[in-house]
Amino acid sequence: MTNSQRQRILFIDDIPSFCEEIVSTLRAEELDAQSMLSPLEAIAQIIRGEFDLVITTLVIAELGGFEIIRRIRGAGCRVPIIMITGFGTDQSAIEAARLGVADYLTKPVEKTELVARVRRILADHAPREPQRPKSLARMISGDSQMSAIFEKVKTIAPSDSRVLILGETGCGKQLLAHAIHQQSRRAQEPYIEVNCAAIPASLLESELFGHEEGAFTGASKKRIGRFESAGKGTIFLDEIGELSFELQSKLLHVLDSGKFTRVGGGNDMYSQARLVSATNRDLLKEVEAGRFRSDLYYRLNVISIELPPLRDRPGDIGILAQHFINQFAPEGKQPPTFTPSAVEALRQYHWPGNVRELQNFAEQLAVLHQTPRIEVTDLPAHVLKRNAKPALAPKDMASERLPFREARDQFERDYLLKAIQDAGGNMAEGARLAGMDRGQFYRLAKRHGLTSSSE
Ligand SMILES: Nc1ncnc2c1ncn2[C@@H]1O[C@H](COP(=O)(O)OP(=O)(O)OP(=O)(O)O)[C@@H](O)[C@H]1O
Description:
Elements: H1 3-6, E1 8-12, H2 16-28, E2 32-36, H3 39-47, E3 53-57, H4 65-74, E4 81-85, H5 90-98, E5 103-106, H6 111-124, E6 134-136, E7 139-141, H7 144-156, E8 163-166, H8 173-182, E9 191-195, H9 201-209, E10 210-211, E11 223-224, H10 226-230, E12 234-238, H11 245-257, E13 259-260, E14 269-270, E15 274-279, H12 283-288, H13 294-300, E16 303-306, H14 314-328, E17 337-338, H15 340-348, H16 354-368, E18 373-374, H17 381-385, H18 394-399, H19 404-422, H20 427-434, H21 438-447
Helix pairs in contact: 14-16, 19-20, 20-21
The chain binds adenosine-5'-triphosphate.
């Protein structure tokens, strides 16, 4: 079986005899084709990702061909589309190209021509081996900026140079520090993490360098510090920007001389550990403001790696969301998958908590979601609220010269979508906001392909 025989084709037109003609032409070539007379029903299935190629005519009573394409694209669906028209004008060809149709045919449709073009487009869009996300230790990514970072890590990991990792909270700094250790020649030696913000300033010195018995009240026994435990391995100082000025000076001394002393002790000890540090603060600004020693900053920042926030890594959002869903789905439960429109909605959210926030969100969905597909309306209210786009104003519809029926349909859909978004995906609440009867609201939303599969 060839690829094009497995790919599904949908033909949309409201003339049953034309539907039959096109479908039987394609089936005679062993292509998997079917037709639908109602564009609104067709759109709902198309944006659920049920077809690999859509063929539509330009003039259909319920909804015109251009509007069908606008709605499909508006829902974030990139399925290839062929347009057939009996009224081909330069203007409609230009509009078709603007909307990104893959091909444009005028009636009467030459059968061999249609089949040839369908086969060409299906071949161009044949599912390829999915691009495997890149990975580095436990970090995965499908984003080109992150691939470049993974490459940089592979280059610098074997050296002994100090590394400073910068980036917003939750974007993977800790994971990256561990990956540097794992890729280094020190991988068999200890890996020690210290979160400088989590330990009270008064205890941090003894945590880092240890103390002798009786060094201070409560120091009843000698304690080995983290630098000593790290031996010839790696010590990762997270949240380095939180270090007090006094400890900054002590750390600077260790980095300059390699020597440190336990609190209350007199003997010099030598550190052979490699230092990796991280912060979500803008350390240069801290230096300028006099809160961070510039000499320490330059000693920490021999090699710096800046992790971009998740919202600037659109290629990562879908891959990571699905990765976490698969990871957290309870045993025996098939992990649900996101529809393309749901992934698009996730991409438009700004993810202030970065990957950690996405991970928590996916864990909840993996456990609570009950159907095989995750639709836009299944997403939480705060994610949808950030996506709410203003509906097209009536004056814009008039200037686009949409026929009244199309303009009304478009308004209806935008209005319902906005109500559903404002209600955080809750249909009953959406109906209440719209001042509509729940049944009527649900029926209209269904007609526009806006309902979730679980409803
Ligand atoms: N690329 C990735 N692939 C898989 N999991 C990731 C990735 N990036 C981050 N994570 C996961 O996201 C969570 C947050 O990552 P991490 O703790 O490394 O962030 P951070 O930048 O160090 O955060 P903070 O600044 O708050 O310390 C962790 O559970 C981590 O495992």
